[in-house]
Amino acid sequence: MAAGYAGGVPKGVTAIRIDRSESKGSVGSARGLLVIYLVILALIGFWPTPVDRAAGSFLLWLGRVVPMLSYTHLEFGANVLLFVPLGLLVTRMLRVHRYLSVVVGLLASVGIELVQWLALPARTPSLYDVLANTLGACLGLLIALWWERGRAHSNGAADR
Predict the structure, then answer these.
(1) Number of CB atoms found within 10 A of residue 91's CB
(2) Does 97 fall in a domain?
(3) CB of 90 closer than 8 Å to CB of 145
(4) Which of 62, 83, 142, 155 is the residue whose CA sits 20 to 30 A from 149?
């Protein structure tokens, strides 16, 4: 071995371990989950009647009893939550330009609302839905980045 080297690493240099365990397997599992999620999203988005129809009277009652839980607030929150998985999964699949997961969420939401407007007369398309869905995709992006940062930090701590 050359002078100054111990175990193949130059003396005074800290070895950096590269964790490749997330690369292919993580993207593959994200892809599989995305397919399942998209089927569920299509069923919800393109169902001929509102998916909350059965709960409508309860939700209106709840809004009267607890004004903070009005139908409008609950629907907006549900639309945000509905698109969090899309933002999260698309972000996990992208290695560069990860912000595009928000654009994917926006385009998916606009597509769903257009189909509801053009082909589903019992559904009510709304720009508020597009806003909420896009916020959900953005939240999914932020959660994915936060998760990965935490994992990188814990992996770095384990290497010390």
Answers:
(1) 24
(2) yes
(3) no
(4) 83
Residue-number span of the structural domain to which 66 is assigned: 32-155
Residue 151 has which token pair? 């994992």
For residue 142, tell me if it sits in a domain: yes
Structure tokens at 86: 């899309």
User: Which pair of tokens denotes residue 110?
Assistant: 């606009």
Q: How far apart are CA 36 and CA 55, in angstroms?
A: 25
Q: How many domains does the chain have?
A: 1
Domain-embedded: residue 27: no
Q: Is 116 within a domain?
A: yes
pTM recorded for the entire structure: 0.78
* Alpha carbon distance 61, 50 (integer Å): 18
Give the pLDDT score at 118.
Answer: 98
